[in-house]
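Please fill in the sequence for the structure shown.

STRUCTURE ENCODING:
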């Protein structure tokens, strides 16, 4: 019974994704989504408490796995620089994808108008960068990085990785970057981070 319930939930997410892609977050409604599903709004509300919640589920399914791959690129037994460069390069490749940029723009737009921004943050960036902080804490404990607040270190690492590209990408000034340019950028970011956190 639980399997069928989860299958139905996933089917609802897929249909909701079609609605959001066609008419956008603002134009979509629980009534429209339930009509497409072929059930009542009450049934939809049994699975999702709000339009924001179902949108977050759609976004996690569409782009969340891409970030998950980036965060899973770490291996605690790896050479520190190799591991961080691999993560940085993969992360840059992900954030350049149009669907990821679309979600970031949407979340920023609605952050002050609904609970969408906080919900996306809790399910996405916060969860992923917590994993990075955990990895950095291991390296601090091993003496490979200066002991500090691992969460702050993770945020500073993210800032360094995004520094050369994020604003230009968000504003559509840059839409594509050659793989070698991303590799070079990732290495610069990692070198700056390791210099900042080298043991003293």
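FILLED IN BY: designer on duty
SEQUENCE:
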């Amino acid at each position: 019974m639980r399997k069928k319930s989860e299958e139905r939930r996933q089917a609802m997410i897929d249909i909701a994704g079609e609605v959001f892609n066609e008419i956008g977050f603002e134009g979509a409604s629980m009534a429209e989504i339930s009509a497409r599903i072929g059930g009542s709004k009450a049934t939809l509300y049994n699975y999702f408490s709000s339009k924001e919640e179902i949108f977050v589920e759609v976004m996690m399914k569409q782009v969340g796995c891409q970030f998950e791959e980036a965060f899973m690129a770490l291996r605690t037994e790896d050479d520190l620089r190799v591991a961080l460069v691999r993560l940085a390069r993969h992360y840059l490749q992900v954030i350049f994808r149009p669907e990821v940029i679309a979600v970031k723009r949407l979340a920023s737009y609605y952050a002050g108008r609904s609970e969408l921004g906080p919900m996306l943050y809790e399910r996405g960036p916060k969860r992923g960068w917590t994993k990075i902080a955990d990895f950095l804490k291991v390296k601090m404990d091993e003496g490979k990085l200066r002991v500090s607040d691992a969460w702050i270190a993770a945020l500073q690492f993210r800032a360094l990785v995004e520094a050369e590209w994020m604003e230009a990408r968000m504003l559509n000034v840059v839409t594509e970057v050659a793989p070698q340019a991303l590799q070079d950028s990732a290495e610069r970011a990692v070198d700056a981070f390791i210099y900042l956190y080298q043991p003293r």
